[in-house]
Design goal:
The protein is mostly helical. It has 14 helices and no strands. α8 runs antiparallel to α9, α9 packs antiparallel against α10 and α10 runs parallel beside α14. The longest helix has 34 residues.
C-alpha cells in the first residue's frame, strides 16, 4: 500500500504510470491480501488450524509472489526494449508458480477436512480464485509479447475477466457469504453457496470463451450470467439488512462491503449489455477497469480488512471493540464521500473536477493505513491492561 501511495504521488514523473498503478495494486496489494486472508479464512471456516511448522512454506510462497511481482513491474519499465518480455515472463512464472502452490495447499487442507463442515463448499472458492489468477496471469504474460491485430484486445479482455472476475470475484464471494452477515450482525446469507459459486464459474468460463473467440454476444451472455449470481447474493443480503436495520450496524466495513458488491453488479450489467450489442470486432469494447478495481476491489478490500484485522488479533470483546472503533472512525462519512467522489471521477464533465474527485477517493482509502496503526495500538493497549490486571490478581 505504501508503494502504491508513493508511485501515485510521483506518477507525473513515472513512465507507464497508469499501468504501474493498476498492477502495483492488483499484483501487490490484492494478491498479497487474498493469499493471506484466504489461508486464514479457510482455516477458520474449517476449524482446522495448521501447525506452526506449516508457516515457513506459507512465508516462502509470499516471498516468491512479491519477488515475481517486482520482476513483472520492472519488465514493464523497460517496455521500450526488445527483451523486456523475458523479465516479465520470469516474474510471471515465479509469481504464478507460487499462487499455484497456494491453490494446492488450500485444496489439500479442504480435502482433508470433515465433509460435514458447513462452510467446506465455500472454501473451494479460494482454490478457484487462485487457479483463476494462474490462468489470467498467463494471459497477462502473453500481452507482454505485443500481440498484433484482434488478439491483443481478446487476450486483454480474457486477462481482466480472469483476474478481476475470477481471482478477486471467487475470493470475494467465498468470503462475503460468511463475513457480510457477520459485519451486519444478521443471519441471512445466500442459500446453496455451492450453486452460487458454480454459476459464477459458468458465467466466467462463457465470458472468457466469448472474449477469446471474438464473440461479443457470447461474452455478454457470460458476463450477465456471472452478474446474476452476484445479483442473487446482493438481494439476499439487502433483505437481511433491511429487516434488521439499526444505526449501530452502519459501520465502515459493513457499508463498504455492501456498496462494493453494488459497484460490481452495476459495472458487470453495463459491460455485459454493451458486449451483447457488438456483432463484430471487440476493439470498441473497454472493460470497466476503474469501477471494478476502485469501486469493487479496493473498497471491498479496505472494508473487509477493517473488520478482519481487529477480529483476528482478538484479545477479548473489549480489545476487539477498541480496534474496530479506531478503524471505524468517521466510517459512514468516509464511505459516502468515497462513493460520491468515485461517481465524480467517472462521470464529471470537467477534467479538473475528475482529478479532484480521484484525489478525494484515493484519500478516503489511504486513510486506512494510519487508522490501522491506531487500531493495533488501541487493541494491544487493552490486551496489555487486561494481562496486567490478571497478573495483579494472581
Amino acid at each position: 500500500m505504501g508503494v502504491f501511495v508513493l508511485v501515485g504521488l510521483a506518477h507525473p514523473f513515472v513512465p507507464e504510470s497508469r499501468w504501474l498503478l493498476i498492477h502495483i495494486f492488483t499484483l501487490g496489494v490484492l494478491t498479497n491480501s487474498i493469499m493471506v486472508w484466504s489461508q486464514n479464512l479457510t482455516e477458520r471456516f474449517l476449524q482446522q488450524r495448521l501447525p506452526e511448522s506449516a508457516r515457513p512454506a506459507q512465508l516462502t510462497r509470499s516471498r516468491l509472489v512479491n519477488g515475481g511481482a517486482v520482476a513483472v513491474l520492472v519488465g514493464q519499465l523497460f517496455s521500450t526494449t526488445a527483451w523486456h518480455w523475458i523479465i516479465t515472463w520470469c516474474g510471471a512464472g515465479l509469481m504464478l508458480g507460487a499462487v499455484g502452490w497456494h491453490a494446492w495447499s488450500v485444496g489439500k487442507l479442504i480435502a482433508s477436512s470433515e465433509h460435514r463442515k458447513r462452510f467446506r463448499p465455500v472454501a473451494w472458492g479460494y482454490v478457484a480464485s487462485a487457479v483463476s489468477l494462474v490462468v489470467g496471469g498467463c494471459f497477462g504474460a502473453a500481452l507482454a509479447l505485443d500481440l498484433r491485430g484482434a488478439w491483443h484486445q481478446r487476450i486483454l479482455l480474457a486477462h481482466v475477466l480472469m483476474n478481476v472476475g475470477g481471482f478477486v470475484g471467487f475470493a470475494a464471494m467465498a468470503s462475503l457469504v460468511v463475513l457480510l452477515p457477520a459485519m451486519w450482525r444478521i443471519r441471512v446469507s445466500p442459500a446453496h453457496p455451492r450453486i452460487v459459486l458454480g454459476v459464477v464459474g459458468a458465467g466466467l468460463a462463457l465470458a472468457v470463451a466469448g472474449a477469446l473467440t471474438g464473440g461479443g454476444r457470447v461474452l455478454g451472455i457470460g458476463v450477465l450470467v456471472y452478474a446474476s449470481a452476484w445479483v442473487w447474493a446482493l438481494q439476499t443480503w439487502l433483505a437481511g439488512v433491511l429487516s434488521a436495520m439499526t444505526r449501530d450496524r452502519f459501520t465502515y466495513s459493513s457499508l463498504s462491503a455492501l456498496l462494493a458488491v453494488a459497484w460490481l453488479v452495476a459495472s458487470l450489467v453495463a459491460f455485459g449489455t454493451s458486449a451483447l450489442l457488438i456483432d463484430g470486432f471487440l476493439d470498441p469494447l473497454s472493460p470497466p477497469t476503474l469501477p471494478l478495481l476502485v469501486g469493487f476491489a479496493a473498497q471491498l478490500l479496505i472494508g473487509t480488512m477493517s473488520y478482519l484485522m481487529p477480529t483476528t488479533i482478538g484479545g477479548g470483546p473489549a480489545a476487539t471493540r477498541a480496534g474496530l472503533a479506531e478503524l471505524n472512525r468517521a466510517g459512514v462519512t468516509r464511505v459516502i464521500v468515497f462513493n460520491l467522489a468515485l461517481l465524480g471521477w467517472l462521470f464529471a464533465p470537467s477534467s479538473v473536477v475528475r482529478i479532484v474527485c480521484s484525489l478525494v477517493a484515493c484519500l478516503c482509502l489511504v486513510v486506512f493505513i494510519p487508522l490501522m496503526a491506531r487500531g493495533v495500538r488501541a487493541q494491544r493497549a487493552v490486551i496489555t491492561d487486561h494481562a496486567a490486571a490478571r497478573g495483579m490478581r494472581d
